[in-house]
Amino acid sequence: MNYSVGQVAGFAGxxxxxxxxxxxxxxxVPSERxxxxxxxxxxTDLDRxxxxxxxxxxxxxxxxxxxxxxxxxxxxxxHLRRQHELLTARIEKLRKMAAAVEHAMEAxxxxxxxxxxxxxxxxxxxxxxxxxxxxxxxxxxxDEYADSQRRTASYTKxxxxxxxxEAADWGERYGALMAADEPPAGEAAMTLAEEHRQHxxxxxxxxxxxxxxxxxxxxxxxERFKAFYDVLRPGLAEHLRDAIVxxxxxxxx
Length: 253
What we know:
It comes from Streptomyces violaceochromogenes. This protein is mostly helical.
């Protein structure tokens, strides 16, 4: 049996463009070509694609995936077992860090209008005041901080739930974008970067493209922010930073 590129894309849940890219870089070269030159994939090719997608789900870069699959001495199953153990431990640690960092920028006022019961319901056992002093020290003299303080002071439990739901939905869609190997400078990534900026503008303060670029750098350089984004998908902080830069360039050039 052999299959067209469209059929394989449907089987695997990837785009045709992704398969073309894998072919171009030699990661997954189809075993056959039709008389018209169209790609035809064998069952062996599908097995290799499955292994590629396993590694990609674990956050491995494409060059490392190629090295692992093409190393005759490598044992992919043992390697995956080790990675699973390491990632499981790392994810648990990062989840705890991410839950607190998620609300750092608005920490000073996010609980002011909530009863203790409502505050626990919205934020669980994460202390929303954990980074309040640091936030005020770093940004307390800026117009953006003052604007955020003013806006969030009136937010209710339902407002905070909506903010969290919007952020969670955005995170899922950005993770899916990375799983499809969309480049940071591509239209899809830049669109989600712009949505990220608009979310800040809507709920907290007017986030200019210059400020957004600075935030993108902070997401990578600050271990806590990097942990928050990378727990959604490994490498997301850097990918988002690059998408923010590309999106800012297209709007300010």
